[in-house]
Design a protein that fits this description.
The structure holds 2 protein chains of 2 kinds. By secondary structure, chain A is mainly alpha-helical. Chain A has 2 domains: 1-52; 55-271, MetI-like fold, CATH 1.10.3720. In chain A, 86% of the residues lie in helices and 0% in strands. Chain A is built from 11 helices and no strands. Chain A has helices at residues 2-49, 54-57, 60-73, 75-104, 109-123, 127-138, 142-166, 170-178, 183-220, 226-235, 239-267. The radius of gyration of chain A is 25 Å and the shape is flat. The two termini of chain A are 34 Å apart. Chain B is an alpha/beta fold. Classes of the chains: A mainly alpha, B alpha/beta. The A-B interface holds A 169, 171-172, 174-181, 185, 189-190, 193-194, 196, 268, 270-272 and B 53, 56-58, 77, 79, 81-83, 85-87, 89, 91-94, 102-103, 105-107, 134, 136, 154. The complex binds adenosine-5'-triphosphate (ATP) and magnesium ion. Adenosine-5'-triphosphate is lined by residues 16-17, 24, 44-50 of chain B.
């Protein structure tokens, strides 16, 4: 009896600790949101009182109006759809292909060493430099943007996955060999799963590169998309449009981060 | 060749680094008889792990040969050998059960069949109920037990153990060693064991090889008979002969430096 009471008491203490932590988290969130609200409020008030130039800096209210107008007209969703398709497709192509090739390099030291300077050279080309060429080669439609995004993602994933594969404990390889495992078995059962942490971290980095790639592609040539919206806004000095595009980008990246976070939970569920 | 010999190494040499060769192992020869517990003691860096990698067929010796049941196996991995490496090396993304059947899987056994076979091992290794846990949820001692189980489930005739219990605290080490000794005696295995620890070598072994470093050589071979039947470490250690063996090995390690 005493025992169960003690267990129950310690259980209570545990949940009390959890509650405290949760409370702390809630407080932090409230503070963060409050800070943002105050900033936005100051901006809005400043704009209305004429302390801040709405021509150069717009105002939160105007940005909200722009967003809600464009939501109502369906324009915003079309732009998000266009950029989203480019980003997600290019991200998947680039990240998956890059990770696959990077892992595969583990199989041949010769190929890895041989390709190293080429990978380094091509990987060092800034996406801005390559984009005009890609537009010429792939046209002004979605294909060229997907190609740019793929290019932006592939090298990060390739080097991250290869790095992960090379970090595998040589003793693990010895263990597998002592079981009589073939190179293919070692690759599938040890190298690929133990590199997953690195593959996922490549994915995470690529979210940023993918969105940059898509928007840069749209800057160069496009008739829709978030990049197009931002560009049009600033070309015609409609700062509120540009800023509305910026907000949209932030929300979009936020959603992508959540998606990759969910993927991480699945792939690395053995970690805690 | 002696019928009783399970594994024999003849004149093993090993050099690393072709341009500026350093001899790591020089003329190492030894035998492990059937069901014998043979230990190697020697200072760090004398080439014990290198010798094990050669015995296991993971490394080619520069010279010499390995024989199992009088058949030459140099440089090839034999299914008769189970190798427990210096670290537990459990795969963190696999459950304990999946870790235990890793070797069987590599051999091409069906997962369901392998898991069936694992069931009794989980019982006899006192890990029943831990099948679905991940290695991160187990203590160091449990992990070592899983590593041993992963090797034993392959039913090897010869078990190589490279300081498998080094990282554990003393009482746990004593427990696991007692368990090991009774398991291998029961299942009639031949064990070749590496340790730094003279006490451990005397308590566990039927025979001890003492090595020195630079280059790694065997300086002495010693038969051990504590005259105790028990497989409990503390009871074996209480043998009157223990101190003499300990002292002799200590002396030959000291003079070999
Ligand atoms: N692949 C390698 N290339 C070059 N030198 C090596 C290699 N592997 C081991 N050595 C060297 O061989 C020597 C023996 O190493 P080994 O790991 O066999 O020693 P050990 O007796 O197992 O030591 P410890 O007790 O610390 O585990 C060391 O000096 C080590 O630096
Ligand atoms: Mg060693």
């Amino acid at each position: 009896m005493q025992n169960t009471a003690a267990v129950a008491a310690s259980g209570k203490r545990m949940s009390a600790m959890k509650m405290k932590k949760l409370e702390g988290n809630v407080k932090l969130r409230i503070a963060q949101i409050g800070f943002l609200a105050v900033l936005l409020l100051l901006w809005e008030v400043g704009a209305r009182m004429g302390w801040i130039s709405t021509f150069l800096f717009a105002s939160p209210g105007k940005i909200c109006d722009t967003l809600s107008n464009r939501i109502a007209s369906g324009e915003l969703f079309h732009d998000i759809w266009v950029t989203g398709k480019e980003t997600v497709l290019g991200f998947l192509f680039g990240s998956l292909l890059g990770s696959f090739l990077g892992l595969l390099l583990w199989c041949s030291e010769f190929v890895a060493k041989f390709s190293k300077p080429y990978v380094a050279a091509i990987g060092s080309i800034p996406v801005m430099v390559l984009s005009p060429l890609v537009i010429i080669w792939f046209g002004t439609g979605i294909a060229s943007k997907v190609a740019i995004v793929t290019f932006s993602c592939i090298f990060v994933s390739l080097s991250s996955a290869y790095e992960g594969a090379m970090q595998v404990d040589p003793d693990l390889l010895n263990l597998m060999r002592s079981f009589g495992a073939s190179k293919f078995q070692i690759f599938c059962k040890v190298v690929v799963p133990s590199s997953m942490t690195w593959v996922v971290s490549g994915f995470k980095m690529n979210i940023g590169f993918a969105i940059v790639g898509a928007i840069v592609g749209e800057y160069i040539s496009s008739d829709a998309g978030i990049g197009h919206m931002i560009l049009m806004g600033s070309n015609s000095f409609h700062i509120h449009v540009t800023l509305a595009g910026l907000v949209t980008t932030m929300v979009f990246v936020f959603v992508l981060n959540i998606a990759v976070g969910a993927l991480e939970k699945v792939l690395l569920r053995w970690k805690r | 060749m002696d019928e009783n010999v399970k594994l024999e190494a003849k004149g093993i040499y090993k050099e690393f680094d072709e341009e500026n060769p350093i001899t790591i192992l020089r003329d190492v020869s030894f035998v492990a008889k059937k069901q014998e517990f043979v230990s190697f003691v020697g200072p760090s860096g004398c080439g014990k792990t290198t010798l094990f990698n050669i015995i296991a067929g993971l490394l080619e010796p520069t010279g010499g040969n390995i024989y199992i049941d009088s058949e030459q196996t140099t440089g090839t991995v034999s299914s008769q050998i189970g190798y427990v490496l210096q670290k537990d090396l459990l795969l963190p993304w696999r459950t304990i059960e999946e870790n235990v059947i890793l070797g069987l899987e590599v051999r091409g056994m069906k997962k369901s069949e392998a898991k069936d076979r694992a069931t009794e091992y989980f019982k006899s290794y006192k890990l029943d109920g831990y099948q679905k846990k991940y290695p991160s949820e187990l203590s160091g001692g449990m992990k070592q037990r899983v590593a041993l189980m992963r090797t034993m489930i392959m039913e090897p005739e010869i078990i190589l153990m490279d300081e498998a219990y080094k990282a554990l605290d003393y009482p746990l080490k004593i427990d696991l060693e007692s368990e090991l000794l009774s398991t291998v005696k029961e299942n009639k295995k031949t064990v070749i064991y590496i340790t730094h620890d003279i006490e451990e070598a005397v308590t566990l072994s039927d025979r001890v090889y003492i090595m020195k470093a630079r280059p790694g050589e065997i300086v002495r071979e010693m038969e051990i008979d504590l005259g105790v039947d028990s497989t409990r470490m503390n009871e074996r250690r209480a043998s009157k002969k223990f101190n003499d063996y300990y002292e002799t090995i200590w002396q030959s390690m000291g003079t070999s430096k």
